[in-house]
Write a structure and sequence with these properties.
alpha/beta; Rossmann fold; 4-stranded antiparallel sheet; 10 strands; 41% helix; 22% strand; globular
Protein backbone atom coordinates (compact mmCIF):
# COMPACT_ATOMS: atom_id res chain seq x y z
CA UNK A 1 0.00 0.00 0.00
CA UNK A 2 1.46 3.37 -1.02
CA UNK A 3 2.29 5.47 2.01
CA UNK A 4 1.65 2.61 4.38
CA UNK A 5 2.86 3.21 7.91
CA UNK A 6 3.81 1.03 10.80
CA UNK A 7 0.19 0.79 12.05
CA UNK A 8 -0.78 -1.63 9.30
CA UNK A 9 2.63 -3.34 9.45
CA UNK A 10 2.19 -4.19 13.13
CA UNK A 11 -1.35 -5.36 12.48
CA UNK A 12 -0.26 -7.58 9.61
CA UNK A 13 2.50 -9.14 11.73
CA UNK A 14 0.13 -9.78 14.63
CA UNK A 15 -2.30 -11.57 12.34
CA UNK A 16 0.29 -13.48 10.30
CA UNK A 17 -1.55 -16.78 10.84
CA UNK A 18 -4.68 -15.31 9.34
CA UNK A 19 -2.83 -13.35 6.69
CA UNK A 20 -1.68 -16.55 5.00
CA UNK A 21 -5.18 -16.91 3.58
CA UNK A 22 -5.97 -13.18 3.28
CA UNK A 23 -8.05 -12.12 0.30
CA UNK A 24 -7.38 -8.54 -0.69
CA UNK A 25 -10.25 -6.16 -1.45
CA UNK A 26 -13.55 -7.60 -2.66
CA UNK A 27 -13.06 -10.46 -5.18
CA UNK A 28 -16.76 -11.33 -5.15
CA UNK A 29 -16.94 -13.29 -8.39
CA UNK A 30 -18.15 -12.23 -11.83
CA UNK A 31 -21.57 -11.36 -13.21
CA UNK A 32 -22.23 -14.96 -14.24
CA UNK A 33 -22.34 -16.02 -10.59
CA UNK A 34 -24.69 -13.29 -9.33
CA UNK A 35 -28.17 -14.26 -8.11
CA UNK A 36 -30.99 -11.81 -7.57
CA UNK A 37 -31.71 -10.70 -4.02
CA UNK A 38 -35.04 -12.56 -4.05
CA UNK A 39 -33.41 -15.74 -5.38
CA UNK A 40 -30.73 -15.62 -2.69
CA UNK A 41 -33.36 -15.19 0.03
CA UNK A 42 -35.44 -18.05 -1.35
CA UNK A 43 -32.48 -20.40 -1.66
CA UNK A 44 -31.11 -19.39 1.74
CA UNK A 45 -34.46 -20.20 3.36
CA UNK A 46 -33.92 -23.85 2.40
CA UNK A 47 -30.71 -23.91 4.45
CA UNK A 48 -32.62 -23.28 7.68
CA UNK A 49 -34.23 -26.75 7.78
CA UNK A 50 -31.55 -28.12 10.11
CA UNK A 51 -30.52 -25.26 12.36
CA UNK A 52 -27.49 -25.73 14.65
CA UNK A 53 -28.47 -26.30 18.26
CA UNK A 54 -27.10 -24.53 21.31
CA UNK A 55 -24.58 -27.27 22.05
CA UNK A 56 -23.11 -27.01 18.56
CA UNK A 57 -22.73 -23.24 18.87
CA UNK A 58 -21.06 -23.56 22.26
CA UNK A 59 -18.67 -26.14 20.84
CA UNK A 60 -17.57 -23.60 18.21
CA UNK A 61 -16.91 -21.23 21.12
CA UNK A 62 -14.65 -23.82 22.76
CA UNK A 63 -17.40 -24.71 25.26
CA UNK A 64 -16.35 -21.65 27.25
CA UNK A 65 -18.29 -18.74 25.76
CA UNK A 66 -17.68 -15.21 26.95
CA UNK A 67 -20.85 -13.84 25.36
CA UNK A 68 -24.04 -15.80 24.72
CA UNK A 69 -27.46 -15.13 23.26
CA UNK A 70 -30.22 -17.59 24.09
CA UNK A 71 -33.65 -17.84 22.43
CA UNK A 72 -33.65 -14.14 21.59
CA UNK A 73 -36.82 -12.66 20.15
CA UNK A 74 -36.32 -9.00 19.28
CA UNK A 75 -37.16 -6.23 16.85
CA UNK A 76 -38.18 -2.61 16.55
CA UNK A 77 -41.48 -1.46 18.00
CA UNK A 78 -44.07 -4.10 17.13
CA UNK A 79 -41.96 -5.54 14.30
CA UNK A 80 -40.28 -8.81 15.27
CA UNK A 81 -37.01 -9.39 13.37
CA UNK A 82 -35.22 -12.09 15.36
CA UNK A 83 -37.06 -15.31 16.12
CA UNK A 84 -35.20 -17.25 18.81
CA UNK A 85 -31.61 -16.46 17.83
CA UNK A 86 -28.78 -18.36 19.56
CA UNK A 87 -25.14 -17.24 19.63
CA UNK A 88 -21.97 -18.13 21.51
CA UNK A 89 -18.46 -16.71 21.20
CA UNK A 90 -15.39 -17.28 23.32
CA UNK A 91 -12.96 -14.71 24.68
CA UNK A 92 -10.57 -13.54 21.97
CA UNK A 93 -12.58 -15.14 19.16
CA UNK A 94 -14.06 -13.45 16.09
CA UNK A 95 -17.47 -14.18 14.60
CA UNK A 96 -18.89 -12.93 11.29
CA UNK A 97 -22.61 -12.82 10.54
CA UNK A 98 -23.58 -13.15 6.88
CA UNK A 99 -26.87 -13.72 5.09
CA UNK A 100 -29.36 -12.16 2.69
CA UNK A 101 -30.61 -8.62 3.07
CA UNK A 102 -33.18 -8.34 5.85
CA UNK A 103 -32.02 -11.51 7.63
CA UNK A 104 -31.48 -9.65 10.91
CA UNK A 105 -27.68 -9.46 10.98
CA UNK A 106 -27.39 -5.88 12.23
CA UNK A 107 -30.37 -6.46 14.50
CA UNK A 108 -28.30 -9.06 16.36
CA UNK A 109 -25.66 -6.41 17.07
CA UNK A 110 -28.34 -3.88 18.00
CA UNK A 111 -29.90 -6.37 20.41
CA UNK A 112 -26.60 -7.16 22.12
CA UNK A 113 -26.00 -3.45 22.64
CA UNK A 114 -29.53 -2.54 23.71
CA UNK A 115 -31.00 -0.79 20.66
CA UNK A 116 -33.96 -3.13 20.09
CA UNK A 117 -37.17 -4.18 21.76
CA UNK A 118 -36.39 -7.61 23.29
CA UNK A 119 -39.55 -9.55 24.09
CA UNK A 120 -37.92 -12.79 25.26
CA UNK A 121 -34.58 -14.52 25.55
CA UNK A 122 -31.32 -13.28 27.03
CA UNK A 123 -27.91 -11.76 26.37
CA UNK A 124 -25.14 -12.66 28.83
CA UNK A 125 -21.47 -11.80 29.15
CA UNK A 126 -19.18 -13.63 31.54
CA UNK A 127 -22.22 -15.48 32.85
CA UNK A 128 -24.00 -12.24 33.82
CA UNK A 129 -27.34 -11.37 32.26
CA UNK A 130 -27.10 -7.97 30.54
CA UNK A 131 -30.25 -8.21 28.43
CA UNK A 132 -31.91 -5.15 29.96
CA UNK A 133 -28.84 -2.98 30.46
CA UNK A 134 -28.83 0.35 28.64
CA UNK A 135 -26.16 0.89 25.96
CA UNK A 136 -24.02 3.19 28.12
CA UNK A 137 -24.03 0.58 30.91
CA UNK A 138 -23.13 -2.15 28.41
CA UNK A 139 -20.03 -0.12 27.57
CA UNK A 140 -19.10 1.04 31.07
CA UNK A 141 -19.98 -2.08 33.08
CA UNK A 142 -19.80 -4.97 30.63
CA UNK A 143 -17.07 -3.88 28.24
CA UNK A 144 -19.19 -4.05 25.07
CA UNK A 145 -18.49 -1.39 22.45
CA UNK A 146 -20.44 -0.79 19.26
CA UNK A 147 -18.73 0.57 16.13
CA UNK A 148 -21.51 1.98 14.00
CA UNK A 149 -22.05 1.22 10.32
CA UNK A 150 -22.61 4.84 9.39
CA UNK A 151 -19.97 7.56 9.35
CA UNK A 152 -20.06 8.64 12.99
CA UNK A 153 -17.05 10.92 13.37
CA UNK A 154 -17.61 14.55 14.31
CA UNK A 155 -16.17 16.28 11.22
CA UNK A 156 -15.56 19.70 12.77
CA UNK A 157 -13.86 18.30 15.87
CA UNK A 158 -10.19 17.43 15.77
CA UNK A 159 -9.07 13.83 15.66
CA UNK A 160 -8.00 14.06 19.31
CA UNK A 161 -11.33 15.62 20.33
CA UNK A 162 -13.13 12.75 18.60
CA UNK A 163 -11.09 10.30 20.65
CA UNK A 164 -11.90 12.20 23.85
CA UNK A 165 -15.59 11.71 23.06
CA UNK A 166 -14.97 7.97 23.30
CA UNK A 167 -14.11 8.42 26.97
CA UNK A 168 -17.23 10.31 27.98
CA UNK A 169 -18.15 7.62 30.53
CA UNK A 170 -14.80 7.71 32.31
CA UNK A 171 -14.72 9.25 35.79
CA UNK A 172 -12.27 12.06 35.01
CA UNK A 173 -11.45 14.10 31.89
CA UNK A 174 -7.75 13.60 32.62
CA UNK A 175 -8.20 9.83 32.37
CA UNK A 176 -9.99 10.20 29.02
CA UNK A 177 -7.10 12.38 27.79
CA UNK A 178 -4.58 9.77 28.91
CA UNK A 179 -6.47 7.01 27.09
CA UNK A 180 -6.84 9.13 23.94
CA UNK A 181 -3.11 9.87 23.91
CA UNK A 182 -2.36 6.15 24.26
CA UNK A 183 -4.46 5.48 21.15
CA UNK A 184 -2.61 8.19 19.24
CA UNK A 185 0.72 6.63 20.22
CA UNK A 186 -0.50 3.37 18.75
CA UNK A 187 -1.74 4.67 15.40
CA UNK A 188 0.61 6.97 13.52
CA UNK A 189 -2.01 7.77 10.88
CA UNK A 190 -4.17 9.43 13.51
CA UNK A 191 -1.29 10.96 15.48
CA UNK A 192 -0.12 12.82 12.37
CA UNK A 193 -3.53 14.51 12.16
CA UNK A 194 -4.35 14.72 15.87
CA UNK A 195 -4.99 18.47 15.82
CA UNK A 196 -6.69 18.60 12.44
CA UNK A 197 -10.48 18.42 11.93
CA UNK A 198 -11.72 14.92 11.25
CA UNK A 199 -13.23 16.04 7.94
CA UNK A 200 -9.75 16.00 6.34
CA UNK A 201 -9.36 12.25 6.93
CA UNK A 202 -9.69 9.70 4.13
CA UNK A 203 -12.49 7.15 4.32
CA UNK A 204 -10.12 4.54 5.70
CA UNK A 205 -8.72 6.93 8.29
CA UNK A 206 -12.22 7.86 9.42
CA UNK A 207 -13.00 4.17 9.89
CA UNK A 208 -9.78 3.80 11.89
CA UNK A 209 -10.83 6.77 14.03
CA UNK A 210 -14.23 5.17 14.69
CA UNK A 211 -12.54 1.95 15.79
CA UNK A 212 -9.95 3.80 17.84
CA UNK A 213 -12.57 5.91 19.61
CA UNK A 214 -14.18 2.71 20.85
CA UNK A 215 -10.82 1.57 22.25
CA UNK A 216 -10.64 4.50 24.68
CA UNK A 217 -12.92 2.55 27.05
CA UNK A 218 -10.78 -0.62 26.62
CA UNK A 219 -13.77 -2.87 25.82
CA UNK A 220 -13.72 -6.68 25.92
CA UNK A 221 -16.14 -7.09 23.00
CA UNK A 222 -16.26 -5.10 19.77
CA UNK A 223 -19.49 -5.10 17.78
CA UNK A 224 -18.45 -4.03 14.29
CA UNK A 225 -21.15 -3.21 11.75
CA UNK A 226 -20.04 -3.32 8.09
CA UNK A 227 -16.38 -2.28 8.52
CA UNK A 228 -15.71 -2.29 4.76
CA UNK A 229 -18.74 -0.32 3.65
CA UNK A 230 -17.87 2.55 1.32
CA UNK A 231 -14.11 1.92 1.43
CA UNK A 232 -11.61 1.36 -1.37
CA UNK A 233 -10.02 -2.12 -1.37
CA UNK A 234 -6.67 -0.84 -0.02
CA UNK A 235 -8.43 0.71 2.98
CA UNK A 236 -10.51 -2.43 3.50
CA UNK A 237 -7.28 -4.37 3.92
CA UNK A 238 -5.99 -1.79 6.41
CA UNK A 239 -9.15 -1.93 8.53
CA UNK A 240 -9.14 -5.73 8.63
CA UNK A 241 -5.45 -5.70 9.56
CA UNK A 242 -6.28 -3.41 12.48
CA UNK A 243 -9.15 -5.66 13.61
CA UNK A 244 -6.86 -8.69 13.35
CA UNK A 245 -4.32 -6.97 15.57
CA UNK A 246 -6.98 -6.13 18.14
CA UNK A 247 -8.10 -9.75 18.27
CA UNK A 248 -4.72 -11.51 18.06
CA UNK A 249 -2.52 -9.10 20.02
CA UNK A 250 -5.01 -7.55 22.44
CA UNK A 251 -7.39 -10.47 22.91
CA UNK A 252 -10.52 -8.54 21.90
CA UNK A 253 -13.63 -10.51 21.06
CA UNK A 254 -15.07 -9.34 17.73
CA UNK A 255 -18.62 -9.86 16.46
CA UNK A 256 -19.01 -8.50 12.96
CA UNK A 257 -21.59 -7.98 10.26
CA UNK A 258 -19.89 -7.70 6.87
CA UNK A 259 -21.37 -7.16 3.39
CA UNK A 260 -18.22 -8.63 1.83
CA UNK A 261 -18.97 -12.18 3.00
CA UNK A 262 -15.76 -13.67 1.67
CA UNK A 263 -13.61 -11.07 3.41
CA UNK A 264 -15.56 -11.42 6.65
CA UNK A 265 -15.33 -15.21 6.74
CA UNK A 266 -11.66 -15.09 5.82
CA UNK A 267 -11.14 -12.90 8.91
CA UNK A 268 -13.41 -14.75 11.33
CA UNK A 269 -12.84 -17.82 13.50
CA UNK A 270 -16.58 -18.56 13.37
CA UNK A 271 -19.25 -17.75 10.80
CA UNK A 272 -23.03 -17.76 11.10
CA UNK A 273 -25.46 -17.62 8.20
CA UNK A 274 -28.64 -15.83 9.25
CA UNK A 275 -31.87 -16.44 7.36
CA UNK A 276 -35.19 -14.78 8.21
CA UNK A 277 -34.14 -13.92 11.76
CA UNK A 278 -32.67 -17.32 12.63
CA UNK A 279 -29.23 -18.95 12.54
CA UNK A 280 -29.39 -21.37 9.60
CA UNK A 281 -25.74 -22.51 9.47
CA UNK A 282 -22.82 -22.14 11.87
CA UNK A 283 -19.27 -23.36 11.36
CA UNK A 284 -15.70 -22.15 11.33
CA UNK A 285 -14.98 -19.33 8.93
CA UNK A 286 -12.76 -21.63 6.88
CA UNK A 287 -15.44 -24.31 6.64
CA UNK A 288 -18.07 -21.83 5.44
CA UNK A 289 -15.67 -20.57 2.79
CA UNK A 290 -15.55 -24.14 1.48
CA UNK A 291 -19.30 -24.78 1.82
CA UNK A 292 -20.75 -24.99 -1.72
CA UNK A 293 -24.15 -23.60 -0.71
CA UNK A 294 -22.58 -20.63 1.06
CA UNK A 295 -20.26 -20.10 -1.90
CA UNK A 296 -23.08 -20.17 -4.43
CA UNK A 297 -25.33 -17.81 -2.48
CA UNK A 298 -22.99 -15.39 -0.78
CA UNK A 299 -19.47 -15.67 -2.19
CA UNK A 300 -20.10 -15.27 -5.91
CA UNK A 301 -19.82 -18.94 -6.87
Amino acid sequence: MAGANKDADRAAQAGRGKAAKRISGYHQGNVDTVLSVDAVAEEAQKLASEKPDRAALRALAGNAPLLTIESLVAGYGAMEILHGVELAIGEGQSLCLIGPNGAGKSTVLHSIYGFTNITSGSVSIGGRDVTREKPNRKLANSGIAYILQDNSVFPDMTVRENLLMGGYLLDAPALAAQKADAVLERYDRLAARANQPARVLSGGERRLLEISRALVMDPKVLLVDEPSIGLEPRFIDMVFDILTELQVKDGKTVIMVEQNARKGLEFADIGYVLVAGEVAIADTGDALLENPDVGRLFLGG
